[in-house]
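Forwarding the complex inputs:
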Amino acid sequence: MSKESYHVNRFELLMDAGFGAQKAGDILISAFAHTGRYVFIEPMIPAEISPPARSRPALSGAIIRVADFDLENIGNTTDLMVAQHEIVLDRRLDDEEYSPSCRVLLDMGDQKNNQDSYEMVMKRANKAGLRVYPFEITDEAQTILKFLAGKGKNMYYLGMLSAIYCVPEDVMIAEIKSTFGKKLKEEILNKNIEIFHQGHEYATQNIDFSFEVVSESNGEGEKVLIDGNTALSLGIVDAGFKLISGYPITPASSIMHTLAKIFPKYGGMVHQAEDEISAVGTAVGAYFGGTPSLTATSGPGLSLKQEFIGYASAAEIPLVLADIQRSGPSTGMPTKTEQSDLLSSIYGAHGDNTQVVIGVGTMLDCFYAPQLARYFAEKLRLPVFIMSDFQMANSYKVIPKPKTFNLKNVEDISDEVLNHFDLDRLPLDIEMVRDDQSNPGVPGHMRRVTGLNTDNEGKVNYFAKTNQRSHAVRNEKVHHVRRSMREPQMFGDCREGDVLVLGWGSTHGAISEAVVSCQKQGLKVGGLCFRIIYPLPLMLADVFKRFKKVVTVEGAYGDKYKRTPLAMFVRSKTLVDVYPMISRATGRPITPKTIENQVKELLKNL
Amino acid sequence: MSTSTDSPKITIKDLNTENPRWCAGCGDFSIIMGLKRFMVNEQLAPHDTVNVSGIGCSGRAPFYVNSYGIHSIHGRAIPVALGLALTRPELDVFIHSGDGDAISIGGNHLIHGINKNFNCVFILYDNELYALTKSQTSPTTRKGHKTNTQPSGTYLEPIKAIRLVLGIGASFVANTADWMPDHLTNTLSAAFAHKGFSFVHVSQRCPHFDPYNFEHKSTDWFTFLKHEKGIAPDRRLADKTEVREHDPFDLNAAFNLSNEDRTYFGLIYHNPDKPSYVDIVRSQLPESPAADTSELFKPYAI
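Prediction (whole assembly, two chains):
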């Protein structure tokens, strides 16, 4: 085996759904993480549970990026693919995310009955410049596979990958044991280890290359391996929420799944409602009673919840919603990413809109956002959105174990959290439409709320001056946030120059990598991602004026007549001609390289 | 249930707020008065009472009772009330909902509120049409009745609300009318005593849009149900119409009544043993103080 050394390398395991590709990936990245490497993982999940095997929709897998430096995104292109058969490979080639020197390990097990198809796909791969390495599952391993009723191929591929990536076998076996140890009978576990060993042996003897990513350490102190939705779920617990009320929807459901296991221990309840509207209604009712509550959903659910969102702002009931965006419109692509709900969150409810929108782009954002959302919701008694997306929710990586806060009273929110979001503390007293905001149980106060307009005593009132005042008071709450916002942190060290790249949410990692890379090449390129996307900080136009051109990178559709949501919104608020440099709604993450190339293209014509 | 023992007695006057903005002769006045009488009888602490409503004439009810209140959005009072029941089970929750609110736009929530059997008194203000939006056909409008959306006469047979909720599995089903103050108040007392989702159907007059509905001066068209564990027939009207013995614990007998075209006032069905979703969810909460979050990341450590 000839050994090639890399600072960063990306590979993917492509299988039919239900064969454990992601599980195998999890084991390998856990081994990487335990041996000092940095990892970033993006699972590929089909929208259906069990699409027919050997069909294009069945593609399920994991993309894994491993490096000797910290990673915030899934990167650019793949250096190695392991494919269970030609169909999943063919499907994945469509995405054109391979590097020019990409190698493909193709399992030839299905070739016998699919000669033509194999030949065609291998030709396609060769034509694209990929080097295809056909391989077989050994007879000995086939016998074990039969014993395991066809399951276990993932362990064979895992064995091959660990040999290629030079992860010691004993490290891998320890990971396999800790993953399956309690779930599998010893006999079955041993068979899995045996298959793994077979794959490892096969690659060692038959594959003539190996990759080494050497890293002594992936950071000091305690570390955790976590995905965005789990970080958000733990953040919900740490922020002191006591009720999550939701309805099953991809990709938000995993928040409820995680909380269903742990929330009661912390005094929290998970309520599965009969529909999306009911889910938000129950959160509203609970918060009227003074209990921190939230709902989590995705695009279609957000549309259904809008009436209650407007209601909460009129009735001055705190409300927190997490929207884990997916590709739309309508049902769209439930397991693909997009950032197109931005305007629905800002302007979605009818009538004048007053709310705060937080966007998450890192694991720490996900963990802190619930605290900040609760702080805003209770201080302002307005709806607060936490906007994540499929990419953010499902990608995972190793991070230093975050500090926990166990937040009880929102006034005790830590400066550390506020600083993270570039925010000063809100004023202690904030005027409400209705003077008395007592919770039930307090004698003599009897707060009665309504979606109708009211005066400051809470009495229904349709008079001109009172209605104008209600609008002013609600909007002033948002203005308090505006005034508390500092200049957003920028990537790297470029504070003024030629191009400023803007983003929000899950494009954070790719933008920061691209911008810092440009800066290292001496280019005057700045970058920032909004962590609070509504409202925007008041000095933003001044920040923009320090650059010749301000552009956005968004996972949302745009063309020459249609500006993308962020570009349109930021432009309207600053009157700076923000140009939508990248507006892609492919469902795939935008890569650092794409951003860097586009920026360089712009610089040429500046 | 919470009653104020050491504070002065609650009177009707304490429960009044502003003059309701309902039409003269509207049955909603009587329902609200019945609720206040019941609250005085039971000495319910108004600050531990929450009235929750949706949209429509009935939706305004919380504003006319001096307790805590949520006038929410159309059809969605049940989910809002459930939020309170889950997180503040010590509060007494009353839901006020019209026939359009409960059976049309909010029909899904009615199904699941009943199935969850959380503790509340649900009052269906059934005037058999949409009134606040000016006379449209509702799910309980009688066939042939002319409305602004079906001016030649309502097309379909009405949904029988009581049969509907029995079918869903309601644990407490009673029927009363706004013009029988004693019966109404007694019905609310029985509903309140039941721990679970107590469904109270109230025939409610709408003299403005349908003055000839509910011949409330006649007694020919209804029967009172009576049982030692039931609700006593209205004092004023009992001797003017049929009174029938009915076992409220007999589900088949309840279904038989609900299938008839004749109206039966009284306790139609009662199952005190149906479990409550809220009790089940809350039983998972720790008895000792909740854990602090310092160990939150433990399962994810590498």
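Chain A touches chain B through 68 residues (CB under 8 Å).
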